[in-house]
Design brief:
Elements: H1 11-15, H2 20-29, H3 41-54, H4 60-67, H5 70-75, H6 86-95, H7 98-115, E1 125-134, E2 145-146, E3 152-160, E4 165-171, H8 179-192, E5 199-203, H9 210-218, E6 222-227, E7 233-238, E8 251-268, E9 274-280, E10 285-292, E11 299-304, H10 311-319, H11 322-333, H12 345-369, H13 373-396
Parallel strand pairs: 1-5, 5-6
Antiparallel strand pairs: 1-3, 2-3, 3-4, 6-11, 7-8, 8-9, 8-10, 10-11
Length: 405
């Protein structure tokens, strides 16, 4: 049990979820420790885990200080005589096998997903997908998207199940600046790792391609997209029924219909320039239009290939997108994901895997103890500190002058 009053989940319990046996096995079966003298895969894992939790802003300098800190070494039973420099951390992040951290992340996610299923009242798995751009201090990025300001940037596309981040992609190529390219790839990558899934992917206005929606439908991927208002379409059939409840909570239902959507087909003209010819897509979709009760001029258009849920359930599913917005704000403000510790894609992926592992630990700690994100991080650090102090006292037999610092 936690030492904090009324807490049902302790830091010690959560640290027990970290697969020690898997860390050792992966170190032996992968090339993660190839040519590594001190910073073996397991040590890098522990260093990044503790460093993200303990530091207000992660950097290669703070990681150097963290590794050389006696409290860190005590917690993870490391040799107190070992030390490293910032340059070693930088080189290790650029070359270490990111698959090592991916497998650990997936293992921890699966354990938490099994223990804390987050199924909602719709009796389906809502997966919210969104992206965030990071460009802080990224002028020195070795590879990245070129944004309008002339700086290079990195795009994170994350799939979020309402409690935990279940998948992510790091995009550095220019073409992924378009959400119509980045989000479908992120979604299909998540689909591939889940056999016989029953997910409904909820997407904001970044994805508008009708061709992508048709592709989703052909691949049996169920989605809900907030479309642009007045998207061109042909109504095939009204799905409104007599005496239907048009109260959708904060919205009022205006229309619910089966439609065909238009798309632009790229055509090469004689001058070899591409223009788009408008054509109708023969796949039927469902269009739901609703207006807010406070501002009737503001309308929400939803397109989906789900014809089973009610209009109210579709609106509620989209409304829960706010969960991923809160999650992004949490990892940016509290875990400082907007600050790039490494300047190459491999290092960025490693740091993001570890950041999401820490985020999962804090999310379960938050949920189990019914507290907020900020409180969860603060109390998690307090418990971690108390745990280390207890270990030091035990190791020294109560005689702290014997403890090596």
């Amino acid at each position: 049990m936690s030492v904090l009053k009324d807490h049902k989940i302790s830091v010690n319990q959560l640290l027990g979820v970290i697969p020690e046996a898997l860390l050792t096995k992966l170190s032996a079966t992968t090339k993660v420790d190839y040519y590594a003298k001190v910073l073996h895969g397991k040590k890098m894992f522990y260093l990044l885990l503790y460093g993200i939790l303990d530091n207000e802003k992660l950097s290669q300098r703070t990681l150097e200080d963290t590794f050389n800190d006696s409290m860190f070494k005590t917690l993870f039973n490391l040799d107190p005589c070992e030390s490293i420099r910032r340059s070693s951390i930088s080189e290790r992040l650029s070359k270490i096998d990111s698959d090592y951290f991916r497998e650990i992340y997936q293992c921890i996610y699966q354990q938490f997903d099994n223990a804390y299923p987050n199924k909602d009242k719709l009796k389906c798995n809502l997966i919210h997908v969104d992206s965030s751009m990071v460009s802080e201090a990224s002028g020195k990025l070795l590879e990245g998207l070129d944004n309008k300001s002339g700086k290079k940037a990195v795009k994170y596309s994350v799939a979020f199940d309402g409690l935990l981040p279940c998948h992510f992609n790091v995009f550095t190529e220019k073409k992924y600046s378009s959400e119509d390219i980045a989000l479908p790839e992120a979604i299909m990558n998540h689909v591939k790792q889940e056999s016989n899934h029953q997910n409904i992917y909820v997407i904001d206005r970044g994805l508008q391609s009708t061709r992508t929606m048709k592709s989703f439908n052909d691949d049996s991927v169920t989605f809900i997209v907030r479309a642009k208002e007045n998207q061109k379409h042909i109504e095939l059939e009204s799905l409104l029924v007599q005496n239907q409840d048009i109260d959708l909570g904060e919205l009022t239902l205006v229309n619910d219909s089966k439609v065909h959507l238009y798309t632009g087909r790229p055509i090469n003209n004689k001058k070899r320039n591409i223009h788009y010819r408008e054509e109708l897509v023969d796949t039927p979709f469902r269009l739901i239009v609703a207006k807010t009760k406070t501002k009737e001029e503001k309308a929400f258009w939803f397109i989906t290939n789900n014809f089973d849920l009610s209009a109210k359930e579709i609106a509620q599913a989209y409304r829960r997108r706010w969960d991923i917005e809160v999650f992004f704000r949490f990892i940016k403000q509290e875990l400082h994901v907007s600050h790039l510790v490494s300047l190459n894609k491999n290092g960025i992926e490693v740091i993001l895997y570890m950041t999401l592992i820490v985020a999962m630990l804090l999310s379960i700690y938050k949920k189990g103890n019914k507290i907020g994100y900020k409180t969860a991080k603060r109390r998690f650090k307090m418990e971690l500190r108390n745990l280390v102090i207890a270990m030091i006292i035990l190791q020294s037999g109560g005689k702290l002058d014997k403890f090596k610092t």
